[in-house]
Amino acid sequence: MKRQRRLCCIGVCSAVVLALGAAAPARWLATDGVKVRLEPTELGGPKIVVEYDLKDPNVTPESPAYVFLRYSQDSGDTWQLVPMDALRGNGFDIVDKPGHKEVLWWGIDQTGVADLAQIEVRVRAIAMAKVPAGRFTMKSLPGGGLDESGATRPDPNLPLYYIAKYETTIAMYADYLNEVGGEGAGWNARMARPERCGIIQEGNHTYSVSPGREDYPVTYVSWYDAMGFLRWCGLRLPTEAEWEKAVRGGLYLDGDRTADIHRDPNPLPERRYPWGDEDPNADGVYRCNFDGADDGFERLAPVGSFQRFASPYGVCDLAGNVAEWTLDWYSTSYHAGLDGFRMVRGGSWMAVPEGCDAVTGATQLPLQESSIMGFRGVRGPAATPR
Amino acid sequence: MDTLNRRAFLRSSLGVAGTLALWPPARARGANDKIVVGVMGLGGRGTYLAEKFAERSDAEVAYLCDPNTRRFARAREAVEEAQDRPPKMLQDFRKMLDDKSVDVIINATPDHWHALGSILACQAGKDVFVEKPLAHNIWEGRKMVEAARKHQRVVQVGMQSRSAPYVQKARDYILAGKLGEVYLVRVYNMMQHPKQADTPDGPVPDGFDYELWCGPAPKRPYNPSRQWLNQWDYSCGPIAGDAVHQFDLARFLTGDIPYPKAVSQTGAIRVLRGGRDMPDTQMALFEYDNLTITLDATLWTPYMKKIPAGIRDSDQFPNWPFCATKVEVLGTEGFMYFGRHGGGWQAYDRDGELVHSEYGRQGDKEHQDNFVECVRSRKRATSDVEIGHLSVLPFHIANISYRVGNQRLEFDGATESFTNCDEANQYLKRQYRPGWTIPENV
Q1: Alpha carbon of residue B248 to chain centroid
Q2: Topology at the third CATH level for domain B162-200+203-365
Q3: What's the sign of the alpha-carbon dihedral A267, A273, A274, A279?
Q4: pTM of the complete model beyond 0.90
Q5: Which one of B42, B74, B132, B319 makes the best mutation probe of the A interface by having the most chain A beta carbons within 10 Å?
Q6: For A208, A245, A255, B298, which has the most beta carbons within 10 A of its beta carbon?
Q7: How is chain B split into domains, by residue range?
Q8: What is the mean pLDDT of each run of 10 residues along chain B (442 residues)?
Q9: Which of A249, A221, A250, A263 is nearest to A377 (CA)?
Q10: ipTM, interface predicted TM-score of the complex
């Protein structure tokens, strides 16, 4: 059952409105009733007010939505991200409950817009998982153990961040391409392969998704493609540390930097897999999508197919399906840093079961793309790749 | 040492039952048959080669092997994308040697597996494409030559620069006397390597056959941070492993001189202290009959750059003073800058005037073409096993000099041994673990 319905409100305002079944919030979260109006203010110049309803009942402080707005001033030919620091209200960035939202966009006159007829706005929301600040156990070696800094132990205290609950899907990526892929950037011909990806380039650099492939993770994306998508929506790649903490959880699942007395100790802070220490196929139960079809998927699986085996923070598919790009460098000895290898984590649908654990990493040239690599985004403090 | 053939080896080390048989000749092959390839070692280089051979219309990759199953996915994906037929995945490469349909083994393992893996492949009647540096030590290199000759195998060494057309042009230019008499060649390998992390030993990860990975080398406690390139047990060093490309070019450009008579060397660990056996600084002087080759090698010089990707296959030259992988050829009448990686070359006359420039392109494709062609024709390959042996041998001598206190070592090519230092002769060959030995008679 595929669940996407895409409605574009053309005219004064257009917004992508995606209705998703509650059981599988695999792509943009459901927003509805987008309204945009321009209001004068006494001293601050005009502001735009964007109202919408965040429909997904599963949005909570622990599983919030990341909401970003993009706008066009040229009838949809080009689009830009509305800077978060230009916004106020209850419906942008990390939004922790569903309901009616109102976003005020200040400084719209700085964009040269004086008339609402000149602008279109799109609102999109991504399902996120909250990872509270605090210590965790990192067992992998950053940069594959070749970190040039010589510091092999990362800071076990990470600040609060949010990580996408699902790998970026084909449908999401196709939306991105349709906004920015006018010259073909971000797309390559291999993405058209229906069994391993399924994004078709139509004439005039528009993109469609092979029927039924909407919820599958996007593949054949280079590190730069991933970064392009994430910059488009205001996110970034996770560091290796962030990725690994998302798998295992912190020492206290509700964080340990606050003065709160209540703490929720992590029963398995050194777990091997998101769900615990059991092998991915222990007792004939398949917990993620790895090599072979016994897990129900010969190749890729729709994101969230193994939701029952999510991480302590509810993050899905960190094990298997697609290996995921991270922000971090790999220092390779022969190439003297020329090639800028990056780390990929998490195993894939082609990996052996043990290769889907919390510590296995692979190195890849950033221009490399393949059918076993994808990505997800993070919202958090600026991070320096290690 | 007892003679040991591959099946006996398999029986002793694997407990695999098998019937003794004469090794078959190369498979009878029609002109349109594809070369069937098996790959040992699925690191970066092995994966690259697997993909390149899978992309060829005249080859097919049938096996991908690595003791570490975590390496399977990336290589398999690359091969599956490049050819219709999926490869078989194995941890133990020896099982594919029994498959008579396999023509060729690509050996892209760490240095300590180059010899044993390639010799077993030769014994099994396979041709071999083995990565550089040819061997872990001098004795092993000689045994690889012997195995290739005895079993009439094509063995190509992954020193692909030899196959680049611009290199041949430079050789012709020099051998035609355009630089006068050449008495000095300077080889550079000025790198920036990371410091090896210092972490405790740990358990061997699931899915990693560490016993097999160690093979002929000592089975040290597993340490996730240990870089095999930095350890004598597993490698002849990151300097030898990379600089051998330039050194091979130096030999090629000057007419493939065979053995140095003596090697002086000074080496030390200056910067990358901790966890490594190998020097991070090496300067060596190789004395040949009518030629001296010098080596300047470091692992801590960030301003020295390998030739950037944008220059490698373009009509540009590298910034020579800061080119990390250049060769300088000094003749009585002229001078040449030469760049690896398709960096091209430029010649200057006695007044320092530029008199000839030649852009370059990398030779990987030509090198692989040459190998496939030789597999069919049974001719010796461009970087034949003996060439590989003679190009890495000087580094082995320099390394031995380092290990015996930076002594000047005199070398006899006829016996491939030292004439002025008994201690040095102890390093000609390694100690083998039982069950993983290379026999005297290959």
Answers
A1: 10
A2: Dihydrodipicolinate Reductase; domain 2 (3.30.360)
A3: negative
A4: no
A5: B74
A6: A245
A7: 6-161+371-382, 162-200+203-365
A8: 43 38 51 90 96 98 97 96 96 97 98 98 98 98 98 98 98 98 98 82 94 98 91 96 98 97 97 91 97 97 90 94 97 98 97 98 97 97 98 98 97 98 98 96 96
A9: A221
A10: 0.82
